[in-house]
Amino acid sequence: MAIDPSNKDLYEAGLAVRKKVLGEEYVNPNIEKGENDHLTGKIQTMVTEYCWGGAWTEDTLDHKTRSMLNLGILTALGKMQELKAHTRGALRNGCTVEEITEVLAHATVYCGIPAGVDAFRSAREALDQAEKEGLL
After folding, report:
1. Euclidean distance between CA atoms 110 and 124, whole angstroms
2. What mean pLDDT is reported for the chain?
3. Residue 43 · residue 59 · CB < 8 Å
4. Same-domain pairing of 49 and 85
5. 120 closest CA partner among 103, 104, 136
6. Is residue 1 assigned to a domain?
7. 29: domain range?
8. Looking at residue 49, what DSSP letter applies?
9. What's the domain count of the chain?
10. Contact status, residue 73 vs residue 61, Cβ threshold 8 Å
11. Residues 49, 33 contacting (CB under 8 angstroms)
């Protein structure tokens, strides 16, 4: 029961970038869930078309810069599950552990210590997993 995107070209471009940044092993199960569930299908289509297709395919900012912005934004929002995914994406986009550390430290100054502590903890978990999988 997948939801048809309003712009199939934007959706396909977004899906390609999403898989490149987050990895097919992360993206494919989410897309597959949406194929059988209207609720999940709706959000997966929206995320892929609007977020990945609408924002990530724009070439004014490179993917590494977008990854660093996402880490700061997700810290501010307290969205740690997404921060874990985007920490891995940042690595795939060429960010070093040192750059990720500095983005999180900078965000901590503006977002507060509790947000920063959560962000560092979540990033550590993502980096540990990435190391196990040979991404580091």
Report:
1. 20
2. 94
3. no
4. no
5. 104
6. no
7. 8-55
8. I
9. 2
10. no
11. no
Can you read off the two tokens belonging to residue 62? 């490179």
User: Residue 91: CB partners within 8 Å, gap ≥ 6?
Assistant: 100, 127, 130, 135, 136
125, two tokens: 């978990």
**pLDDT the model gives residue 135:** 85
Same domain, 46 and 67: no
What is the pLDDT, as a whole number, of residue 5? Answer: 84
Lookup: tokens for 57: 């395919």
CB 4 within 8 A of CB 45: yes
pLDDT in tens, 1-51: 467 888 999 999 999 999 999 999 999 999 998 888 888 889 999 999 999
Q: Is the pLDDT of residue 59 over 90?
A: yes
46 and 77 in a common domain: no
Instruction: Check which CATH number belongs to the domain holding 126 and give it.
Output: 1.20.1290.10
